[in-house]
Amino acid sequence: DAMVIQNPRYQVTQFGKPVTLSCSQTLNHNVMYWYQQKSSQAPKLLFHYYDKDFNNEADTPDNFQSRRPNTSFCFLDIRSPGLGDAAMYLCATSSASSGRNSPLHFGNGTRLTVT
Amino acid sequence: DAKTTQPNSMESNEEEPVHLPCNHSTISGTDYIHWYRQLPSQGPEYVIHGLTSNVNNRMASLAIAEDRKSSTLILHRATLRDAAVYYCILRDVTKDDYKLSFGAGTTVTVRA
Fold it and tell me: Whole-angstrom Cα distance, residue B83 to residue B77?
């Protein structure tokens, strides 16, 4: 029944070792988002896609990249993770056809640990 | 972007109503008021949104002040499952993007 699926739920990587987080959706939504949430903080938007159009937030570090090969899948690549990148990474979707008030649907996140 | 201000935390007793305030004194005419909540170890979930009129759904009610400078999310009978962080967010429908930006939120604790 899950509509926005993030795998894995927990990911451990080493300092400086590239890591990819995955998100898939069964909602056929055309907008997809990646958020970073550090402990006891609110989610922070990293970037979002409108269809294939990529929209980066001004303060998102270059270390973070994203790919969206098709409507259903979106990936977050962290090229050289630092200790400060340890966080929960949340994927979300929304439907542009439902208007700009269209609710976001979130996955349950991937918790990234950097050792 | 117009900002929101919420209390850091609130406590409630089970089975009692919870009124969560949100101030947005710089709200513009095209800003909708959205509420999301985040249960422990889960992603945020949509609760409700409104523009001017009060709104009700199966999860909660949203009361919007006449001048729109504040709003209140009402959980009619709190349960232990309502313990979460509640976020009040403004979305400008005239903006050419679909972004949603979170503020600090209110942590709600429900006592049995």
Answer: 12
CB B23 within 8 A of CB B70: yes
CA distance B82 to B47: 11
Per-residue pLDDT of chain A (115 residues; tens, 9 = 90+): 669 999 899 999 999 999 999 999 999 999 999 999 999 999 999 999 999 999 999 999 999 999 999 999 999 999 999 999 999 999 999 998 888 889 999 999 999 999 9
Report the alpha-carbon distance of residue A3 to residue A10 in Å, rounded: 19
Q: What is the 3-state secondary structure (H, E, C) of chain A?
A: CCCEEEECCEEEECCCCCEEEEEEECCCCCEEEEEEECCCCCCEEEEEEECCEEEECCCCCCCEEEECCCCCEEEEEECCCCHHHCEEEEEEEECHHHCCCCCCEECCCEEEEEC
CA atoms within 13 A of residue B69's CA, in its CB half-sphere: 3
* Chain A environment of B43 (Cβ under 8 Å): 4, 90, 92, 106-109
Chain A residues with CB-CB distance to B105 below 8 A: 42
